[in-house]
Amino acid sequence: MTSTADNAADRAERQGSLSVVRPADADQSGFETFIKITADGSVSAYNGHVDLGTGIRTALGQIVAEELDVSFARVVIVLGDTSRVPNQGATIASETIQIIAVPLRKAAAQARQFLISRAAERLELPIADLTIEDGLIRGHDNRSVSYGELIGDETIRLGLADDMPVKAVGSYSIVGQSVPRVDLPAKATGELVYVHDVRVPGMLHGRVVRPPYAGVDAGPFVGTSLIAVDEASVRDIPGLIAVVTSGDFIGVVAEREENAIKAAARLKVEWKPVPTLPDLDDLETALRANPSTPRTLLDKGDVDTAIAGAARPMRRTYTWPYQMHASMGPSCAVADYSEGCIRVWSGTQNPHVLRSDLAQLMDRPESAVEIIRLEAAGCYGRNCADDVSADALLLSRAVGRPVRVQLTREQEHAWEPKGTAQLIDVNGGLNADDSVAAYDFATRYPSNGAPTLALLLTGKVAPIPAVFEMGDRTAIPPYDYDNMRVVAHDMPPIVRASWFRGVSALPNSFAHESYIDELATEAGVDPIEYRLRYLKDERAIDLVNAVAERAGWTPRPVREEKEGDIVHGRGFAYALYVHSKFPGYGAAWSAWIADVAVNKTTGDVSVTRVVAGQDSGLMINPDGVRHQIQGNVIQSTSRALMEEVSFERGKVATREWGAYPIIKFPELPRIDVLMLPRQDQPPLGVGESASVPSAAAIANAIFDATGVRFREPPFTPERILEGLRGQAPARQKALATPPMPKPSSIWKNPFVRSRGVFATVGALCAAVVGIGAAMLPGRAIAPIAQPDASVYSTATIARGAELAALGNCAVCHTAADGALNAGGRALETPFGIIYSTNITPDVATGIGAWSLPAFERAMREGIHRDGRHLYPAFPYTHFAKTSEADLLALYAYLMAQAPVRATAPENTLAFPFSVRPLLAAWNALFHQAEPFKPNPAKSEAWNRGAYLVEALGHCSACHSPRNTLGAEKVGAYLAGGLAEGWEAPPLTSLSHAPIPWSEDELYAYLRTGESRFHGVAAGPMAPIVKDLAALPDQDIRAMAVYLASFGDKPPDTVAQDALATRLERETRVTLAASAGARLYQGACAVCHEVAGLPLFGSRPSLALNSNLHSAIPDNLIQVILHGIAKPAFGDLGYMPAFKDSMSDAQVAELVSFLRQQFAPDKPEWGDLAGAVGRVRASR
Amino acid sequence: MMPTKVRLNVNGTVREIDAAPDTPLLYVLRNDLGLNGPKYGCGLGECGTCTVLIDGIAARSCVIPIEGCVGRDIVTLEGLGSREHPDAVQQAFITEQAAQCGYCLNGMIMTTKALLNINPNPSEAEIAQALQYNLCRCGAHIEIMRAALRAAGQIAEVGD
């Protein structure tokens, strides 16, 4: 059996065949095929449902092979392609095997019956004397004829007969056997399997830009919020084909995928403000406030009287959070629009529904649309697979070529129709004899429309929330209470929501199974025994007893108080998952016994073991059933313990895996699966059942452990602590941001002479003169005609290149994506924006007309060739110290470059900073144009380092604080400053790092871009380290010697290592007890956790990182928002930018956690949300 | 950034790519080289579906630009083996039926491979630690753990 039927289908066109079909529609104009056997003996079977990763392709193959008496390998299963398979509705409710496969099985039996009858005629033997083996019919006389031979070149079409007898279970040889999944070898070796892998000729790549009302799909603003799209903002992106808008739908199309990504990220879009949306921080209030219509599902006995007469009334409320399907692969589709035919390759769960949606979107008949269904990432319900199919089609129509659209992780998270929140009230209680007085159950489930997004965004469908009757799944409890009322309050969605594994049955069962546990506790009866008093279904009773026995359940009429910090508990829950339209029908029976360990100090809950029992009826592929049970146990444990969508002002705020964690390997329970042997019973759906008892079993176990009842998943550490302490968790209040520490004056710049009183007065006089001369132009130095670099030796030019690297000329004098040294880079200063100039030897726009004396004057005095003053953003205060020889070499190098014609934009400085002549006064105050003079008291290395650092290296230009006029403070040398929105941290004894800078670590940092005790070079420092690669090791060592002389003496290396190890051990993250901690674990830990599996790139230790210990959070925020796209060296690896994946509030929570966790001895940073906003706005 | 020619060594063959140097490796592997093994999952290095080996070390190809891959050995799922000749780790995952939808499978196999490169005899706890930042939504973890143990030679029975 192979996973593609294309070749078989082609061959089938040209040869005889036997098909079993049924009319496609009422007028019987077309037909749908279930089984087709061709003359070459190959078998194709067609099913309207699709494989969502559960392995139904394999199980259906077994069923067909069994009924047809052919080998499993001979059967090709075709799933979901609208042009080939029957319309059998959406793949939902675990009904593929239980319901949808029934006609397929009958069709196979019918084909076999036809063929064996024909063989009996052909061989002139009674049917009873014939046997079949893999499609070969044999008589007792050993004469045989194959299915293919019986078909020959005839085209035989049989109408599907409903009354066709099928095989008795006892005679099964293929069904009921464990068969390896047919799809795994292809998946394990990278063959083309998924819709994500589809590539068609001429295909372009699209991305969409979603509106700001993230995850909300109803309300008058939906489809009407777009004000403008600025296409010019993406015009420079190579290979951009189109920007497409329609209503609130926006898409971009490019030749290459990465360019579509860039265009979507960069496109400037103006939206109307999102109106105030319902606050979803308090789900109970939000759900009660949502308008609803009661629908009574059951009313038995006299509930009100029984409650009024109850000895111990009990009113309880259970709240279920919004959760996500959270497919591993964001949805993807390829569409090819043409007038004749529309083809869409899709991972949809409901191909025929999607076809109808797309026909509506395109104003075309359904027959013009063909959906080719491929596998996608598992979805467990409805994700964005349909949405992206429509997106791709809109873009394909706009550009007239096939377009592939891949949604981003952020879009899938924000816009997938959520598994909805649910609110359940149970009223009832106990009679005096501990029997159940009454059970009054009311459930609120705001779901389930979620029209395909493009229909709403383009205005094809009005954004009016529809009310679906979907809250009633398993709303009737499995217990036979005498007085019972069950009401579903049908209500429209609040945010975009649709079915998610277990639909409303999982929350409803959470309430049923928690409540009966509460009743049993009140009654002082063992919880299993109490259930059995009310459970009448024999198969349910068998299952409950079998699971109790397997787990070694010890009856406990009274809960035992547990001692110690870590308490253990055990809980039971049972459910028969009743699905589909009410009253619906049952899938497999399921029961759980969960063991938990609860840490009372931290609130951490571990589910340590689950015994999951299931009665699935006939199991087509027992291994497949086992995998489904295990998968359900793991996924639903994850949902119960940690999953909850968070909202900010009513909009979905979870956009990546840190904000929406799912269970990880170390958190897995041990799972013991018990499958009851019921091969003589009809097969039942197994895709969801084992999820249904999960949350209640865990909550009941937590109650057993702690004595506290939790009625609102997820059971996060915060919620457990809150419950255990009976109050809101103590939140640590953020302190106000401490002021930047006053730089100590212990380090003065050793190369700035202190001015005496007279000197200062003299300087001030000069300043006044400077102001007086403000209107006078400076002295111009005559231009030279043409630079002539040939007079300089290659060695001089090479030396100049090294010096240019030391001075980082190119870092400032090169614009993003601009030519080297051609200027135009915007430098933000406190006084306005200064654009760097062109320092290539272009005569008109660069420095081609500059003589050596003009260059030297600029470097030493900050004066342009034409006499204008240069702004000290150009660090001539440092460059002045450069030696004659080095300036000559640098000049030679600059003049030897290729000239580039480029004029920098005008500066935008505020008055009075825009008045250049005032700089004469500034220079008089702050500039000492004197060459470097070594200090004879210091070593040669120190003096060499001093020269490199102080002159061209100009380190203190960023690493020293500046005064209000922008001059370096002499008395706070290297005490830390700011550069381009980043902190240039103190390099002296004022460093905040827990391990002081040493000469060796300074050397390592400057040479490799990383110090194990401080972190990696990022932001503006990364290109500086990259440039320093031009310098020989001894120069880097000299810089380290010089810089280290301003630091405290570090401990020896053994002590440093010990300190590092201790800090890392003490700050190890073992628990995700806050939103910030979960963000860390989901987003950061993979690359930053100490001793994690090596990943490409470095693994900076957060416990030691200077930025986490700094007085200000700016560098940490910068690197989280913007990442490290351009490290000093590729070996260091790259850090992604989280600015489009986390909100300001989330970044603030993360930063707050990182500070507390990794710099526990430092005060909290205050107003982090403000700081994040400021840093975000600064770019 | 404008496209330039970048030479990459992928699965033992030098390939010349016409793409901007800041293009994430993932898109080049999938779109230019037609390799389906590495998958887009999050674009943030969080989930692990895009994992490849770079110089034998696990690497999240969605966050590594091709300019950082020049001169390095890149190996994808396809470079390990084929359906006919699967690598030992691939075979272990097939034998243990260690996937449901299979979207995470690439990352699980490649990360296991990277782990075994540096630790040929990992304990169960070490495997769980190494794989913990590879997410699986279907809950195939039990089978994946068994597959990794089998790949490490710790489950030996034939035909299990």
Description:
The complex is a heterodimer of chains A (1179) and B (160). Chain A has 1179 residues and is α+β, with helices and mostly antiparallel strands. Helices cover 33% and strands 17% of the residues of chain A. By secondary structure, chain B is of the alpha+beta class. Chain B folds into two domains: 77 residues, Roll (Ubiquitin-like (UB roll)); 64 residues, [2Fe-2S]-binding domain (DNA polymerase, domain 1, Orthogonal Bundle), CATH 1.10.150.120. Helix content of chain B is 33%, strand content 16%. Chain B contains six helices and five strands, in the order E-E-H-E-E-E-H-H-H-H-H. Chain B has a five-stranded mixed beta sheet with strand order 2-1-5-3-4, with helices on both faces. In chain B, a hairpin with a 2-residue loop joins strand 1 and strand 2. The radius of gyration of chain B is 16 Å and the shape is elongated. Chains A and B meet through helix 5, helix 6, helix 16 and helix 32 of A and helix 1, strand 4, helix 2, helix 3 and helix 4 of B.
Q: Please give the alpha-carbon distance between the first and last residues of chain A.
A: 56 Å
**Largest beta-sheet details of chain A:** 7 strands, mixed
Q: At CATH's second level, what is the architecture of the largest domain in chain B?
A: Roll
Structural class of chain A: alpha+beta
Query: What is the CATH C level class of the largest domain in chain B, in words?
Result: Alpha Beta
Mean residue pLDDT of chain A: 92
Q: What is the overall shape of chain B?
A: elongated
Strand content of chain A: 15-25%
Secondary structure: number of strands of chain A: 35
Report how far apart the termini of chain B are: 52 Å
Going by CATH, what is the homologous superfamily of the largest domain in chain B?
Beta-grasp domain
Succession of helices and strands of chain B: EEHEEEHHHHH
Fraction in helix of chain B: 25-40%
What is the quaternary state of this protein?
Answer: heterodimer
Number of domains of chain B: 2
Strand tally of chain B: 5
Q: Unreliable runs of chain B, pLDDT <50, ≥5 residues?
A: none
Large-scale geometry of chain A: globular
